[in-house]
């Protein structure tokens, strides 16, 4: 499920955009999404910086009391938020500045349905294109997106998969087979037994029955999987 963040300091404007999103969902898209409303740039930044919410698409007004939409967008980019940004505002005067934060669209109010739908089409197309180059995982409350290079390895823990990233661990409720189904299109991933999926780019040492990852972790190879793993490992390095 996608998460769309709306930010405007006028409640009536938030209501209008939310109504447009509802119409867009009925007429144009099959994807499900939830909407988070913020009445200030500060509130939006607080939610993102505390990792309470991770928006997939941002719809921002520019002229707001406190932080402007542009100021909020610059800070969001500094926080690492790569979500498509659509500005909905009353004046065209900041259009050039908007593209400094890689804004996807800049729409002057009053927002017309056709322009809004076109902007949302572009935003969802951008998400789908990004998904081709990134790992996209559905988690509680939204979607997490990260580079496959950031994944060191994954391991099964009961009904969950723990994705060990370079800077953090991500715990998701799915089977190892489901997770491997997401990762297997990237050639650097190899399944090692039923419990581990390894990123071969992060392997430091391969011993007889143990693999040392470059984050210090050690992975035991089941005896009946050693030959299969070694074949995949050497094939990756000599055939790619």
Would you kindly provide a written description of the structure presented here, covering whatever features stand out?
The chain has 240 residues and is α/β, with parallel strands linked by helices. 35% of the residues lie in helices and 30% in strands. It has 7 helices and 15 strands. The chain has helices at residues 11-27, 41-49, 69-78, 95-98, 113-133, 176-183, 226-239, and strands spanning 2-7, 33-38, 57-60, 85-89, 105-108, 135-139, 142-146, 151-157, 160-165, 169-173, 189-192, 196-199, 203-206, 210-213, 218-220. A 5-stranded parallel beta sheet has the order 2-1-3-4-5, sandwiched between helices. Helix 4 links the parallel strand 4 (85-89) and strand 5. Helix 2 packs parallel to helix 3. The chain is elongated, with a radius of gyration of 22 Å. The model has no long low-confidence stretch (mean pLDDT 90).
List the helices and strands and how they pair.
Blueprint: E1 2-7, H1 11-27, E2 33-38, H2 41-49, E3 57-60, H3 69-78, E4 85-89, H4 95-98, E5 105-108, H5 113-133, E6 135-139, E7 142-146, E8 151-157, E9 160-165, E10 169-173, H6 176-183, E11 189-192, E12 196-199, E13 203-206, E14 210-213, E15 218-220, H7 226-239
Parallel strand pairs: 1-2, 1-3, 3-4, 4-5
Antiparallel strand pairs: 6-7, 8-9, 8-12, 9-10, 11-12, 13-14, 14-15
Q: Rg to the nearest angstrom?
A: 22 Å
Count of helical regions: 7
What's the order of the H and E elements?
A: EHEHEHEHEHEEEEEHEEEEEH
Instruction: Summarize model confidence as the mean pLDDT.
Output: 90
Q: What is the end-to-end distance?
A: 35 Å
Residues in β-strands, percent:
25-35%
Largest β sheet strand count, sense and barrel closure: 5 strands, parallel
The amount of helix comes to 25-40%
Low-pLDDT residue intervals, each spanning 5 or more residues = none
Q: Which structural category do the helix and sheet elements fall into?
A: alpha/beta
Number of strands: 15
What is the spatial order of strands in the main beta sheet?
Answer: 2-1-3-4-5
Overall body shape: elongated
